[in-house]
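Sequence in, structure out.
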Amino acid sequence: MAADKLIAGFPPERWALFLAPIPQSCLYKAPVGGALYVKHQYCVEVLNRAFGADGWSMETELVSDKDQYRDLYHAKDAGGKAAYDADGDPVFKEKLGRKYSVVKCRLTICAPGCDTPAVREDFGSQVAASDWSEAVKGAASEALKRAASRFGFAAEVYRTEELEQTFGADWESSVLPTYAPPYEMPAGHLTALVEWMTQLGWSAERQQDELARCVNEQTTGNLGRNLKWVLDTARPEATELMESMDVPAEEQAHLLAQIVDVKSAQEIVGRLRTEAVDVVGGGGTAAEKTPERLFGEEGGE
């Protein structure tokens, strides 16, 4: 579509500047997935060059912001050692994980000589490590670029055959990522983590999400320690407690299947400890209590 036909009444020379091919030096490639993109500042510079600083405006609206997940970690005492409560249980603290924001951008362009402005809207999203403001800023930048693309800006980014025609067959070799490649987990660590998560019954989707959080040696180690604690400490203790209360094997298997991570392990093992004191300490057996009461379920007599 010709530039002068894109938006009726807008000076064609303005659109020619706005829709000009992107210089190769302004193209970037994400190291994960290889998607091509241009920076936010380049989009702003093109808008200013084509329509003037006063010829366009953007309005943003925060649509959603939330914590993508939360992390549990073993707290430390004043001496820097692992902390335990009065019952000898590890003390875990919760910290917020990555922030996820979605922003809507309304881009308005009113070039000189045109009485009727043109408007396009689109959304942008961003995940930041822990800073909410970084997530919002990134989402707003992405939303502006997407709104501009509604006018045809940076269209060649989505049509790589045009880039090959412009820069040659080897154009991609000179398009560099804007940040260092992501952390590469040792193959042995990856194999072990997948094996442990599978033993705990995690879905493939959850495994992928957790592995995506392993961005360095520390986060990889934390995931491994949590998984091993559940498998080697929490589940065996739950089994021992249930055996001391003569819990039927079928019910033991049912409850162990619910111990899949640190949070569920803390809740279930803690409940079993309380029940064990009531049953064993009082001279009774699990058979004298209904499974519904033992496992915190409703129903039963």
